[in-house]
Structures are given as C-alpha cells and as structure tokens.
Amino acid sequence: MSRYQQLAARLKEQIQLGYFAPASRLPSVRQLASEHGVSLSTVQEAYRVLERDQLIVARPKSGYFVAEERKAISRPEQSKPPQRPMDVSLWEDVLAMLLGHGVDAVCEFQHAMPDMASSTLKPLLKSLYELNRHRPQDGMKYGHIQGDAGLREQLSRLTASAGCHLMAEDFVVTSGCQEALSVCLRAVAEPGEIVAVESPGFYGAMQAIKAANLKALEIPTDSRDGMSIDALRLAMDQWPVKAILVTPTVNNPQGYVMPLEKKQALYQLAQEFDIAIIEDDIYGDIAFDYPRPKTLKSFDDDGRVLLCSSFSKTLAPGFRVGWIAPGRYRDKVTHIKYVSSSMCPTLPQLAIGRFIREGGYERHLSAMRQHYRKARDLMLEDIRRFFPEQTRVSYPEGGFVLWMELPKKYDAVKLAERAKQAGIILAPGQMFSATGKYRHCLRFNFIDRNHASREAALRTLSELLPECQLSPS
Known about the structure:
Helix content is 40%, strand content 14%. By secondary structure, it is α/β, with parallel strands linked by helices.
C-alpha cells in the first residue's frame, strides 16, 4: 500500500470513528504533511481518495470538510468487457445522436459541451473580432504546416504545468482533438492491428479506431482510478497490442483522475512491451484540483507518448483548435495531418495564442473549475433524490460529464427514446463500448446555468424509468 493510501485509510478510520464530526473542517494539507512527515502531494492524493469516496468535500479557498450524513451513492464497479479484440460498431447510433444536435429540446444531457456563456470568454471573442477586422489576410493564406508558432509557444508553457518539457517545434496543431486522435492512430498502427482502450471509453475515439480499420481491445476500468494495469498486462501477454489509447486525467465518460503512480506504471508497461501510448488530455486543464495533475507524457523519456488535446472543452468546440505532441512520431504525424487536411485556420489560433499569453485562459479556467465543481455536486444531489437506491454514479474530479449505471433491469436506450419525446436528449451507454455494452448506463453533461430545468428533467427521467425495463430474455 502506498503512503497516500495508508494516510487515506487512517483518515477514513478517524472519520468513521467520529474523530471528525460531519461538516467539520479537516486539517490543512500543509498541517497534515507536517504531522505525518509526508509530502504535500501525498496529502493531496489522500484527500482526493476520500473525496472520490464521498467521505469529504472540498470547498474552494476554504479547505476540506467531512461530508454531511446522507444517503450514499455507490460508485460503478470495475467494468468487465469482452476479453478479445473486437471490431467497433454502433456508428449508426453515434450518427443519430450527432444529427439530433440543435433540435428543440427542454434539456440536452448528451453532448460534452462546455459553458460558453461565461464573461471570462469576452476577451477571446474581442480578440477574434479585432483580428478578423484588422488582419483578415492572415485568415486567408496558408499557415505553417505545424500550426501558428505563437500558439505553439504558448502550448509549451501550458504543458509545463502538466509536467512536460516541450518546445514549440514539438507540437502539431490539428482541427480539434478528434482529428488529433485519428491522426495518431494512423501514425502508430496499421489496418487490422489492435489498440487497447478503456471500457467504457469515449465514442469518438472508438469511431476513430473503426475508421482506421483497427480492432479495439477493451480493458477493465475502475471508476475511481482508471484502467486496470494488471488486466492490461494480461491482455498484452495474450494479444499483439500495437498501442494504448487512454484518457487518464479527467476521463470521459467517468471523470476520474488516474493516480500518479498508476500513470507511471502504465508508462513503464508500454516501455516493457515497446508500444505507443496515445494520451487524450482534452479535459486535463479543467481538473478541479490545482495545480492540475501531471500527464503520462511527463514520464516520457523516449518519445513513445503522443499527447493529444484541444480547446474544445476548455473554451469552445467551434474554434476547432487541437494539437498533438507526438514525440518520436512527429514526422509521420505531420505527414498524415498534411495529406488529410493540410493546414488549420489561422485566426482562431492567433486569438487563442493571445488569450493565453495575456492571462485570459488561466482566469477562465479558474472560473470554470469552480462552476463545474458546483454543478457536479448539484447533479449528484439530484440523482441521490430522484433515482433508485441501486443506481451507481461516477464522481468526476474535473470536467463536466459523469457516468450513471442504472439497475440492470432498466434499458437506457428505451429511456433515451421515451425522454426524447419529452424534450430530454440523452447519451445511452452502449455508444461508449466497441460492441454495445453498457445498455443500462448513461453519460450526462451536468452543467447548465439553469439548474431548475435540469432538476425537472432528472425528475422526469426517474418517472419514466418504470416504462423502460429490459425485455425478458
């Protein structure tokens, strides 16, 4: 057991024995570190474990507090996907959801869409307006094949906070993170080869695997700390896995942050088998803890990690500005990017680069972390009130999506169909698997400035559940 796990276990015992009363303030990170002779990061990791287990809550600028006594929500158990490589299916389901965007709806839970109404985005919009007005020619000519140099310089600064030591020339700008993932898959694997993925995993990544004619090997994943390293090793002993595609920091759809020592173990396993890791870090900057968690890329001393991200979740998806730090695969990634879509539009890159340089990006992130954390807590409280006791829910440590596991007698696909008639749009769980598992699960976007409408929608969903039981087999 690691030091942070030992400390978490000791604190958990003290809470359960009543040494700390419900709603009482816990010792500060610095105080606990001094008392137990451990590092600040060890205490932070221990508190993160207790927060995931809903024993404590973090309050911005106030510290950590023991949770109030209430009906607990169980976390999803470790998944049990098929133990063999599979062709990815369900494109029709994903397409139907994508085509449904923009229809009149009372409440849209289905898309992982950030808050784009915040006043902290105004400087970025102003910058884009000024560039379009005064430098329109910059948006009409070819840009640099790797992306705007100024933006890439800012990316080197941003990734330093995630433990990386990268230069501007180490980045390739893409049209969002979806293109980044697609390019990376084609750079590291040939058609017919196998890619290990989390289960459940992001449906966009699954479809990128399908488009590259690769096979997905789903690895058991825990909603607390991510992909099972032991199960991954067994799979790699059995199958010729070519690459690992993983979202370890604020995972989509479950929202967990893989502990640092587990990230290191994952990287070392990839080294042992000499395979690539495609790391999707699109939500990493909006992890609730600050400073943000380190990436897998921070351990990368031989260039095998292809770090992918974009500003689609931190700013807005319409800018279509993503990027890759491809390590040893830079030349191949640059070539694939060039032949697939050439250069990316310049003006959004210039505006975002300026926004970061002038401090607007960090101010926006700070506001969003607080907003999303509060929205998560409201959503969990509503689920606690309205849904059956056997419902299991992930506990996101960042971002704005969570994973709900209904009692297995319910059909989330039927629920999505019934809900649509009531103007509520859902993302059923079967899209987050290569083969349609998780039919009793849903992914929710939990942010909305109108909490009342979301509360009413969740109440409606709970009332529809009795109509949505699975047919007897």
